[in-house]
Amino acid sequence: MKSDNEQSALVQMIRPIFARDYALATGWKRVATKSQDYALFENPNADMLQLLIPQDHQASDYAERILETAEKLSQFERRDLTVVLRDMLRPNSDCLHFKRVSEGTKTGVISLLNGVGFLASIRRLLESAACGVVDPQQYFKRLQRTEAKQFLESCLLEQTGFGSYEMNVSCPLRSLTSDSAAQAHLFPDTKTAPFERRVTHYIVSASKQISDSIEADAINELVDKIGEAREQLDYQSFPVINANFCDAILDIQAVDDAGDLFLSATWAPKLPHRQDMPSEIRFRPEYVEKIEQISRQLKPPQKEQEAINVIASVEALRGDISTSGQREGFVDLLVFDKESEELVPASIYLSAADYVLADKAHMQGGYVKVRGTLVRGRRKHTIDAVQSFEIQD
């Protein structure tokens, strides 16, 4: 079979030990031979089929033999050749696939700002899942855990697919040892699994629970089960989904071009995974309101309105020319919310005089001081009843 450019590049990156690890992890047995140049593998379920893997990456026929091996594996596993080559390259990694499908992504592109937001939201989802594994809670004021930070640092961003906009995140199982791998083969559902695998399991399992509860009109029952699992410390059979995770899903979908979000995973061949894991989860655009409801129920009660007197930065000006010939209207600020203890976006409607001050602060990179009433929303807050607006010296 003739390989395309991507397949040829993957073949060159696969090292002999990667190919051997993949073969062993997928049920092939190494056969003793006198040759020191090749490793021979057979599979009891594949009659008359053998894998011949070169031992030297510099061998003249190395690329040809690796491609031949991958083609045999593709035929035996009934999977796409490129997918098999990618898995051979990372036999010790789970891979999460986030794919947006809409009219605007059919050519495989997305706007720069939406792409940046998509990636930032995926990061928040990974971080909230990691925190949820370390310390199962329904809501985190701040996602600050050493284990979560280390997990993010180990993740790798892979190439995207075509016909949609896709981001693939590779999660190497760095804490996997020979002993833990042996235990995981016997008990794949226990806490003996590597931390990275428990995070990827959490992401897929939590996503399925959210999607299934929406389809079954049972989001209140889902929230109840989350609370029961947390109280009974029953983290293995049911994930303690946190509100931060729900918000991250909403952020991933919060782009101008509404469409479906597909989430799936391919599991590291070197380590067995739970057989009840779904192959793919689909979040439709109309799920947004329901996911917002789940998130609100998981968070502690918040004041809907609060009097504020804060320092803020001016992020964007969205005003229009009024009938008086002066510009006034909405301005986007970034303010510190004491309730959540984080910086949050807030919009404010300014008169022509205050709009001039906001424009000046924005152009000079300065700050403004605002006194009014903060009205909380999910993605963006609003500042009403503005009592004072001035440039902060």
Q: Can you describe this structure?
A:
There is one protein chain. With 393 residues, this protein is of the alpha+beta class. The chain folds into three domains: 5-89, no CATH class; 93-298, no CATH class; 305-392, Nucleic acid-binding proteins (OB fold (Dihydrolipoamide Acetyltransferase, E2P)). The protein has helices spanning 5-13, 16-25, 62-77, 81-89, 112-134, 146-154, 178-186, 195-215, 219-231, 243-253, 288-298, 352-364; strands at residues 29-31, 38-43, 46-54, 93-101, 156-158, 165-172, 260-266, 280-283, 305-317, 320-321, 327-337, 342-350, 367-375, 381-392. The strands form three sheets. Strands 5-6-4-7-8 form a five-stranded antiparallel sheet, with helices on one face. Helix 5 runs antiparallel to helix 10 (243-253). The chain is elongated. The model has no long low-confidence stretch (mean pLDDT 86).
Strand content: 25-35%
What class do helices, strands and sheet pairing give?
Answer: alpha+beta
Identify the overall geometry.
Answer: elongated
In total, how many beta strands? 14
Task: Tell me about the largest β-sheet.
Answer: 5 strands, antiparallel
Average pLDDT metric: 86
Can you count the helices?
12
Q: Poorly predicted ranges (pLDDT <50, ≥5 residues)?
A: none
Radius of gyration: 26 Å
